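To the wet lab folks,

You asked to see what we're planning to order before we commit. Fair enough. Below is the target structure as tokens, and below that is the sequence we designed to fit it. If anything looks off to you, flag it before the synthesis order goes out.
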């Protein structure tokens, strides 16, 4: 029985401070971690959430040189901006791995020895194209006009002696593994969403995999992990980086067998990545694991990009927006809500502040904030702040009321189904908002102020009791997405007596167009 959940994010390059794109993956992973911790069949101790930083390689070395710091000082400084941001965004990671840590370096070297001794690494000459900003080699077949197929910047041509990992040996194995959904139906989610699975399979079935160059000569790049079987090389940063998913949570023993609580058959292992690093995660990584004799992850989910005016947001393009500025302006939970709600996970999204304000005013201020505020106000006005003490099951409502009662009892399943099955955060939130909207409509139709005037005390009491329940269940269900708002609602409603605070989401005035 699978009752544990291990979730990872990519480890971020520390050549610059984090932007919205980086925070997106961490917020999504955090939401999943919180969701599984809450589940009775998993629970707090059965969830492990890992994030971290990728600190070696040419890109980092160059940034350190530009900052006139030595590489270690530089990474020690920048890593703090990531750690601080995760704290601000309520990211509940259990561990934070840095690739310059001893535990990681040791595991990378051990993994290389194991694969080398197995005969899956050999020495050869590398001649070809290399993109320094992306830290990626490109085969001639994929290069047009000497530009990087990914970032479109000029490639450099290099020729040097290096070590190669036999990806080609495992090509057919990987194709068969991905395709074997007849014996393993759940494997349909091994690479997700489906479009990405098709993309990877298409690539594997139509190209011959070239072996992966996994070393860099020290004379060209010193900032890396020394290759255990060559004094002249350091490890290619991607081979180094991918190992973080095992180095943070386990160890190899003397016989080369890997031990970890989080890579066992009873664990659901999920890697969240951006679509630009899908090839590394869906081709290199499964083959590395197979060569190391470690089980495969259950899912490698590639999300889309946040774009600005049709361009990917990135530091190098100079269009990156700082999460901290947005959080200062709109609050942590608004930021989290916006990213997870506005775009289905997997697709690209257009980022704009107008879009945040629109979501804020419509969904948060008008719908959720208003439902809480008007309910608390009625409890204050009619019952001096005491929540009507009625058993909901025993009350018979009119049709609209019964519909809400039903929505309340089925919300958990409706809301969490989409994230449990395919990480569809937007749909989950949509389901929760269906209940909020039903409840607001119910207030408008019932006109409680008339019930009060006409002394329909029992009806008024039942009506308010139902709203309280709708809010409680909403608060519980938004917890993984918006932990602070969830706690605030639960506190304000209280067990018996309310504690009304300031409005959760005071409307933002915009200039009407
Ligand atoms: N260090 C590698 C990952 C190694 S994982 C073993 C790396 N780092 S990165 O800092 O460049 O990017 C990390 C992640 O941020 C990627 O998943 C990437 O897709 C994501 N994003 C960077 N810009 C993005 C957007 N504009 N939108 C959404 N996510 C994007 O790659």
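Sequence we intend to order:
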């Amino acid at each position: 029985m699978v009752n544990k959940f291990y979730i990872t994010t990519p480890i971020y390059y520390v050549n610059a401070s984090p932007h919205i794109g980086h925070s997106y993956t961490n917020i999504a992973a955090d939401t999943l971690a919180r969701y599984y911790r809450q589940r009775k069949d998993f629970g707090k101790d059965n969830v492990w959430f890992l994030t971290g930083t990728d600190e070696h390689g040419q890109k980092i070395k160059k940034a350190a040189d530009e900052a006139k710091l030595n590489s270690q000082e530089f990474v020690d400084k920048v890593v703090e901006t990531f750690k601080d941001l995760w704290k601000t965004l309520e990211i509940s990671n259990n561990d934070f791995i840095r690739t310059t840590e001893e535990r990681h370096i040791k595991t990378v070297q051990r993994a290389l020895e194991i694969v080398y001794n197995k005969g899956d690494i050999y020495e050869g000459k590398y001649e070809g194209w290399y993109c320094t900003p992306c830290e990626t080699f490109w085969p001639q077949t994929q290069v047009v006009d000497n530009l990087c197929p990914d970032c479109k910047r000029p490639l450099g041509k290099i020729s040097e002696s290096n070590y190669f990992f036999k990806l080609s040996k495992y090509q057919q194995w990987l194709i068969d593994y991905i395709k074997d959904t007849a014996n393993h139906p759940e494997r349909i989610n091994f690479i997700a969403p489906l479009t990405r699975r098709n993309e990877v399979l298409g690539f594997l079935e139509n190209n011959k995999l070239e072996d992966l160059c996994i070393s860099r000569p020290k004379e060209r790049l010193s900032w890396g992990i020394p290759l255990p079987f060559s004094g002249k090389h350091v490890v290619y940063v991607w081979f180094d980086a991918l190992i973080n998913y095992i180095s943070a949570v386990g160890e190899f023993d003397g016989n080369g067998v890997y031990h970890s609580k989080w890579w066992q058959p009873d664990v659901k292992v999920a890697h969240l990545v951006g679509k630009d690093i899908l090839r590394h995660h869906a081709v290199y990584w499964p083959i590395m694991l197979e060569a190391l004799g470690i089980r495969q992850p259950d899912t490698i989910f590639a999300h889309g990009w946040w774009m600005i005016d049709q361009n990917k947001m990135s530091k190098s393009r100079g269009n990156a927006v700082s999460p901290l500025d947005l959080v200062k302006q709109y609050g942590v939970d608004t930021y989290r809500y916006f990213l997870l709600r506005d775009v289905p996970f997997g697709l690209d999204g257009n980022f704009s502040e107008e879009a945040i304000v629109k979501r804020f005013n419509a969904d948060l201020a008008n719908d959720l904030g208003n439902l809480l505020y008007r309910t608390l106000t009625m409890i204050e006005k009619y019952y001096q702040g005491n929540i009507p003490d009625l058993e909901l099951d025993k009350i018979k409502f009119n049709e609209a009321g019964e519909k809400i009662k039903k929505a309340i009892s089925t919300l958990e399943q409706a809301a969490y189904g989409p994230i449990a099955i395919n990480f569809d955060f937007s749909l989950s939130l949509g389901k929760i908002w269906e209940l909020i909207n039903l409840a607001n409509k119910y207030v408008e139709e019932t006109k409680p102020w008339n019930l009060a005037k006409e002394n329909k005390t029992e009806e008024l009491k039942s009506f308010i009791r139902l709203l309280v329940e709708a809010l409680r269940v909403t608060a519980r269900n938004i917890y993984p997405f918006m932990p602070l708002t969830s706690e605030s609602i639960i506190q304000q409603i209280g067990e018996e007596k309310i504690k009304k605070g300031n409005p959760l989401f005071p409307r933002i005035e915009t200039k009407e167009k």
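Structural context that might help your review: The longest helix spans residues 353-383. The domain at 4-303 is CATH 3.40.50.620 (Rossmann fold).

Thanks,
Computational group
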